[in-house]
């Protein structure tokens, strides 16, 4: 068994499915103690919980809408209490809203920002509040390659993910050297977010132009998160890692 993260206490948001589920499982399978948040999606969260508990019997899930400040704060506090502390937070919860700019209402814009950017801000702020008291910690924010590339019909999503990268660098500077803050910017990954209910066929076709000639698997994003949470990532902060099959090269 790989127990690289033995004794590391982690909170993953948006853990019910997709990248969050793969991340929670990957972290638990490398020895971490895991709590994960989910919003609705009870059946999917139960599937994640069973998989995570097969590695970490003490794992637990927390229902919380990260776009509601009080719920996000309560989730972090619940995680700290249940885990007996918090060493790593993974801000993964996210939504995508596809609409042309001229049809994007303020309400739709705010709804995306409230989850992807403000949710990350509140969860990160509360996790860091705890980490500062204990003198160490890691924050890993899930951004997106669309935060660099831009994408028509995705104003709010692109803005939220560019903001996540900027917030990552701001926190990295503010809390160095004790707390390391990094982001992972996935390219297209095979999850519900790329499904027909969320993204139009035209947009999904754009995801296929990748040098490595395929979209990613959630586990491939989880591997980078696990690395950034672990003992080999001690000299890394303020970075955004593209895990994208070459769809963005920097
Ligand atoms: N799939 C991709 O191609 C891709 C690419 C780049 C970045 N990302 C990012 O990766 C992250 C995970 O996305 P995914 O592809 O696994 O998508 P997904 O839709 O499968 O999962 C999103 C998760 O976020 C949770 N969530 C949504 N709204 C929430 C809220 N208000 N409060 C709490 N949780 C909430 C959902 O319950 C779910 O667990 C997101 O931040 C997404 O923007 C995904």
Automatic annotation (TrEMBL):
<dbReference type="InterPro" id="IPR002347">
    <property type="entry name" value="SDR_fam"/>
</dbReference>
<dbReference type="InterPro" id="IPR020904">
    <property type="entry name" value="Sc_DH/Rdtase_CS"/>
</dbReference>
<dbReference type="InterPro" id="IPR036291">
    <property type="entry name" value="NAD(P)-bd_dom_sf"/>
</dbReference>
<comment type="similarity">
    <text>Belongs to the short-chain dehydrogenases/reductases (SDR) family.</text>
</comment>
<dbReference type="Pfam" id="PF13561">
    <property type="entry name" value="adh_short_C2"/>
</dbReference>
<protein>
    <submittedName>
        <fullName>SDR family oxidoreductase</fullName>
    </submittedName>
</protein>
């Amino acid at each position: 068994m790989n127990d690289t993260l033995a004794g590391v206490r982690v909170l993953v948001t948006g853990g019910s499915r997709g990248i969050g589920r793969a991340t929670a499982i990957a972290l638990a399978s490398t020895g971490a103690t895991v709590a994960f948040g989910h919003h609705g999606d009870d059946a999917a969260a139960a599937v994640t919980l069973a998989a995570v508990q097969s590695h970490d019997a003490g794992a637990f899930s927390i229902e919380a809408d990260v776009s509601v400040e009080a719920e996000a704060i309560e989730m972090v506090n619940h995680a700290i209490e249940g885990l007996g502390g918090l060493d790593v937070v993974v801000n993964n919860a996210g939504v995508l809203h596809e609409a042309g700019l001229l049809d994007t209402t303020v309400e739709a814009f705010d709804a995306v920002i409230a989850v992807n950017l403000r949710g990350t801000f509140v969860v990160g702020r509360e996790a860091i509040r705890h980490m500062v008291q204990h003198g160490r910690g890691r924050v890993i924010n899930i951004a997106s390659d669309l935060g660099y590339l831009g994408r028509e019909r995705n104003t709010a999503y692109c803005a939220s993910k560019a903001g996540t990268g900027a917030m990552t660098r701001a926190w990295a500077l503010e809390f160095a050297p004790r707390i390391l803050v990094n982001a992972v910017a996935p390219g297209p990954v095979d999850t519900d977010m790329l499904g027909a209910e969320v993204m139009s066929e035209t947009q999904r076709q754009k995801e296929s132009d990748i040098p490595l000639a395929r979209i990613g698997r959630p586990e491939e994003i989880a591997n980078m998160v696990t690395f950034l949470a672990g003992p080999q990532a001690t000299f890394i902060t303020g970075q955004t890692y593209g895990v994208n099959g070459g769809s963005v090269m920097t």
